[in-house]
Amino acid sequence: MTPAATETETLLERLRGVTVPTIGHFLEDGFLDPGIARLAGSGTVVGPARTVRIAGNDAIAMNQAILALEPGEILVVSMSGDHRHAPLGAVTAAAIVARGGLGVVVDGMVTDVADLRASRLAVHARGTTCLTTKRHYGSDSEQGAPVECGGVRVATGDLVLASDDGVASLTRDAAAGVVRPAQESDAAEPDLLRRIRAGEPLEGILVH
């Protein structure tokens, strides 16, 4: 493993121990529209983004993106504003798991939600539908290029954090800058909760 790869893996490991809302205490940007919510999976999932923009309901673009996935990545799917057609269902989810993908974030719909919940995949999307993409072999879709997902620009290699609370996508520099204060905040929280539950005056806790 190269030094850069080792550094990235160390950063990912530190981020896995941080709650995503804690990062929201320190950063304003990078948080996807809360309409993109968890539909399957559990816990906090962290990994590099692999992006795809799907145009014209093109199912083949999704298949090609899955073939490009590296183990440990999270597939980030822009539907080019289409919030009716699902690019992800039982078969595509199984293929992503087979490729070693950790999760999928779709700025749009998914289908086969019972199968998604039975898989090992973390899935975030705007909702579910019975209407799916088609095998069009369109030419307007693209893989690996920066996409807009939930109002956030996401590039392949950015770090995605997905949990029950939502999704954030951060550049590596932004993630490296926020991970220490986020860890410290999370470490302090149990004692704050203990003090509140013990009846300590709130003025000494909330305004200091």
Q: What features would you describe in this structure?
A:
It is a single chain. The chain is an alpha/beta fold and 208 residues long. The protein has one domain: 3-Layer(bba) Sandwich (Glucose Oxidase, domain 1). The chain contains 7 helices and 12 strands. Helix 1 (3-16) runs parallel beside helix 6 (172-197). The longest helix is centred in the last third of the chain and has 26 residues, at 172-197. It is globular. The termini are far apart. The relative contact order is 0.22.
Short description:
This protein has 208 residues and is an alpha/beta fold. The protein has 7 helices and 12 strands.
List keywords for this structure.
single chain; 208 residues; alpha/beta; Glucose Oxidase, domain 1; eight-stranded mixed beta sheet; two-stranded parallel sheet; 7 helices
Tell how many strands the DSSP assignment holds: 12
Helix content: 25-40%
Instruction: Return the CATH class.
Output: Alpha Beta
Q: Tell me which CATH architecture applies here.
A: 3-Layer(bba) Sandwich
**How much strand content do the residues show?**
15-25%
Look up the CATH topology: Glucose Oxidase, domain 1
Give the C-alpha Rg.
18 Å
Shape: globular
Give a quick account of the main beta sheet: strands, pairing sense, barrel closure. Answer: 8 strands, mixed
Count of all domains: 1
Termini separation comes to 44 Å
Fourth-tier CATH superfamily name = Ribonuclease E inhibitor RraA/RraA-like
Give the helix/strand layout.
Layout: H1 3-16, H2 20-23, E1 37-40, E2 45-53, H3 59-68, E3 74-78, H4 90-98, E4 103-107, E5 109-110, H5 113-118, E6 122-125, E7 127-128, E8 142-143, E9 147-149, E10 152-154, E11 159-163, E12 166-170, H6 172-197, H7 203-206
Parallel strand pairs: 2-3, 3-4, 4-6, 5-7
Antiparallel strand pairs: 1-6, 2-8, 2-11, 9-10, 11-12
Helix pairs in contact: 1-6
